[in-house]
Amino acid sequence: MFAFSIRKDEEPYVKEWAKGHPEIEVGYTDELLSPKTAKYAEGADGVVVYQQLSYTAETLQALADQGITKMSLRNVGVDNVDLDKAKELGFEITNVPVYSPNAIAEHAAIQTARILRQTKVLDEKIENGDLRWAPTIGREVRDQTVGVIGTGHIGRVYMQIMEGFGAKVIAFDPYENAELKAKGYYVNTLDELYAQSDVISLHVPATKENTHMINSSSIAKMKDDVVLVNCSRGALVDTDAVIKALDRGKVAGFVMDTYEDEVGIFNADWRNKTFPDKRLEDLIHRSNVLVTPHTAFYTTHAVRNMVLKAFDNNCELIHGKPADTPVKID
Ligand code: NAD
Ligand code: COI
Asked: Which regions form coiled coils (predicted)?
């Protein structure tokens, strides 16, 4: 098995897995999988991958040309895989759908609380020696109605945390969870959720249907001073529409751990370089916008599970066993 883009913080877990599987030869590199680097996997039966870049047709072809069609992702999202090409080439793909929902939900909840209490503004003021209270007054979480879009693994944990703060939590999901339904969390339509929520947090996948689900017409249906939280996928949000709504004061705050143009920008060092995206630069410097570079998942707990589960999955694939968490590619 060969793994691409293994970071320093993942290396101990790769070694832990390899130690427990002496029958498997494990190789790895810190380089991203690309048409150029695919050759590093030569002779392997399967690859374990995670990367910020897309798994393009060309990349998949480069693996297939070496007879490698068993690929295990160390993450949840599969929106960056050219699934049509994967199908054409006969790929078997696995992901790790549940490595630590808490990691992402906790981050979303922390950022929600931070934006409501204006901690970014306070921190900046304090650093500059301005220790006055006004006008940096906060909103208490318990006074908010928090609308959760998507009640899957992560959305459900976010709901629990927000309830722990005392918020009124409502939710929308076309596939309702029986337990949440029995407890009366669901509203019937997204429009109802938009109309009632003071905070709206997205926990849905970036499917074609969900692309830009937050746009100027959905924002128009929301309450004034709404706070938007996107720790899911950048493509869910029409960033320009949110910027306009921030400028008008309709949206009071925006939490973004994901950004529609993040590929090639997030998880890179831009110090002493020209920042490549003016729109993102503007958002980063706004006092009512909290940007994190897709780090919601990034905890020791999550990373260990991502690595160990992806290697287990790939081991199953190369032994011809049915994968525990296959990615549906038809
Ligand atoms: P999940 O599959 O467990 O749950 C997603 C839920 O969304 C499902 O219940 C589905 O029915 C629902 N849904 C789909 N479209 C909807 C819509 N239009 N309206 C309402 N509900 C809808 O997924 P998850 O593991 O909870 O992941 C949620 C999101 O978090 C995904 O976008 C995933 O890629 C993202 N994610 C982000 C990070 C990060 O570091 N920021 C890490 C992991 C996952
Ligand atoms: C995911 O697991 O889908 C994430 O968003 C985290 C990142 C490692 C891609």
From this structure: none
